[in-house]
Structure formats: structure tokens, C-alpha cells
Amino acid sequence: NLANKLESLEGDINTIKADNSAYVTMPDGTKSRIIYANGQLTVKNNIYKKILFLGNSLLLGLSTNGSHGAPFGLTASNPQKDWAYLLTQKLQAKYSSSVTVNKLHDAVFEQSESDETSQNYINNNLAQAEKNNDLVIVQIGDNVNSDIRRTTFKANFEKLINAIKSTNPTADILIAGVWFDGGGLQNWLLDFASSHGCMFAPL
């Protein structure tokens, strides 16, 4: 009867909410993922056209204000050889030359030694960052290099990721780290990514 049908439908919807691997085939034959975000079921394709990079000096170097030329990754010899530029080139080749990228420095969050400083970073920076991205890459962890920083980082990292999800509800999130690993932070980030629906890439 109708009540049973509605109950069955509700069960299907709840399954979709909990399962990030539910796909539908679109009229053009491409596959899109069904996701539950901000109280709504949404269909998300697998094309990344708008990307936000969060990173430390490996992303933006030490010239974050452009005083020494356009900021680029600290380990690169020029802007065309840093990891973000090379990855952007690959994404543009795969999807479209119209892929847009925005960058946000996250070293202040890494270096935080109090919950207040961590929350201030989230409030002051993510509010100004580009929203509704298709992909957010969080390269992080290298400056989490003391016991107090690791404690603060672990206590507040979920808040950072939740804030990213709030302003980018349909985005895939990739956590990348750690180039200079200390205190087992890379393994901690891997476990965090696995339990919070994020991808992870070791550096």
C-alpha cells in the first residue's frame, strides 16, 4: 500500500544520504554521484571546473603578498614548476581550459597554539575564500611541529573541514600531507580522511 511505498522510499533516501558512492546515469551517458548536502539530495558530476587550494609555503611560498613576484611554491624554481601549477595544467587538459583555481594560505592554522587562534583563522579566512568549489585540496601539516601545535591542530582540524564543507557543500575534499612529518601526523590525517569522507594523498 501507499504507506509501505513511502516507507520504502524513505529507506532508499536514507541509504543515499549515508552512501557517497551512489551514482546515476545522465541523459548524455555520463555518470554523476548522488550526494546529500545541506539537507538536500544533489547530483554532482565528476568534472572539476572550480578548485580551491589551501596550503602553506609549499603552495604559496614566502611571498604571499606578491612583493617578490607572484607567490608560488617554496620548493619550485619558478611559478611554472610548483605542484599547484602542474596539477592545474593536468586538470585543464582533462576537463577544460576554463578550470579556475583559487589559493588560500593555511600556515596560520598550522601554527596555531590555541583554540581561539584556530577559530579566528577559520572565521577570517574561509569567509573570504571562493565558495561552491567542485574540489578543495587541503595541503597541510608541515608547520605542526611541536606538541602544543599538534594538540591544537587535532582539536580544531575537524572544525576547519566542516567549515570547508559548509561553504563547498558538493565539493570533493582531498587532504594532502605531510612533507615534513612529525609526531605521526600523516597517519593521523589519513585516519581522519578515512572517517570523514575525504580523499588523502601522502606527500
* Arrangement of strands in the largest sheet: 5-4-6-7-8
Proportion of beta-strand residues = 15-25%
Rg on CA atoms, Å: 19 Å
pLDDT averaged residue by residue = 83
**Annotation field: number of helices:** 7
Task: Give the low-confidence spans.
Answer: none
- Largest sheet, strands/sense/barrel: 5 strands, parallel
Order of helices and strands: HEEEEHHEHHEHEHE
Structural class: alpha/beta
The geometry reads as globular
Binned, the helix content reads 25-40%
How widely separated are the two ends?
Answer: 55 Å
Number of strands: 8
Description:
The protein is an alpha/beta fold and 203 residues long. The chain contains 7 helices and 8 strands. Strands 5-4-6-7-8 form a 5-stranded parallel β-sheet. It has a 3-stranded antiparallel β-sheet with strand order 1-2-3. α6 (147-167) links the parallel β6 and β7 (172-176). The termini are far apart. The mean pLDDT is 83.
What is the compact description of this entry?
The termini are far apart. Helices cover 40% and strands 20% of the residues. The mean pLDDT is 83.
List the helices and strands and how they pair.
Layout: H1 2-18, E1 23-25, E2 31-37, E3 40-45, E4 50-55, H2 57-60, H3 83-94, E5 100-105, H4 107-110, H5 115-126, E6 135-139, H6 147-167, E7 172-176, H7 185-195, E8 199-201
Parallel strand pairs: 4-5, 4-6, 6-7, 7-8
Antiparallel strand pairs: 1-2, 2-3
Features:
globular; 203 residues; five-stranded parallel β-sheet; single chain; three-stranded antiparallel β-sheet; alpha/beta
